[in-house]
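So, could you explain this one?
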Amino acid sequence: MRRLRTRVAGALLAVLALTVTSACSSEDGTAGSEPAAKAASATADRVEPLSDTPDPQLPVTVRSSDGRKVTVRDAERIVPLSGSLSEIVFTLGLGDRVVARDITATFAQAERLPVVTRNHDVSAESVLSLKPDLVLAETSTGPDEAMDQLRDAGVPVLVVDPAKGLEDVGPRIETVARALGVPAAGKELTKRSEERIAAVRKDIPKRTDKPRVAFLYLRGTASVYLIGGRDSGAASLLEAAGAVDGGAESGLEKDFTTITTEALAEAAPDAILVMSKGLESVGGIDGLVKIPGVAQTPAGMDRRVVSIEDGVLLNYGPRTDEVLKSLVDQLYGDAK
């Protein structure tokens, strides 16, 4: 189930890899009669590069999270194999060197790049046809045969630890920056990202009655209905927003569990967090409350839903401050 975290982290889960793509290709904005909850702001569709474009100092040798030492001699043709890693490269100011994208890189600057993944699996042939001099991957990137094919062809492949929470923002940025030969830019971007997150957190209302929020992963066109638990990747974001992860608090230890009336009753959410395409796929809020058990929760009765764009929600990267702000604004509204 790790791919969901890298997708909606950081990202998308191995068990959902086939269903997510088919669902996304079928989603055509079938929202219900009531407008869907406000998604992340339009600015979240673009990344904001550093003002000064860094000049990579190469070669460098870095340690990949799979234990290998990777020597990067050039960074003229980069292939990041997740939306989160693509965000980091573009925000460091090196987006003009990216020659392909993963299906989860949905921000504006990357949208015209060729896609080299299918059902979230890498096509080694597609990647190699672009003659990359560096591939950036997540620990869940696969299949293994494709990754081995890239290495056997002599392409440096750096595997980066997955993003699980706010504490991973800086380390992931700096890992990528070191591999690209721009460590100073990595430190600058880390500082900017952490300062912006801190600024959002300062504006969060101080409450003793923290709202309980359940994170639901929905793909109605593929009949995928899951509730997030302790390892879903959402807990850190919800805690930063001054909320409680209802799924984790109710004892759900796994990353995701099939939604049941009992699980929702235990989570007892005051609000429901969803990805925008997931909400659309079930017919908007009108369709969401028809999922068994949802209408009986406090969130369902109040139709209180927080919707954030799929491509940024769990990335834990340079745009996490925007995600956190959208979450806070929707969760508290005028109470701020």
The chain has 14 helices and 13 strands. The radius of gyration is 19 Å.
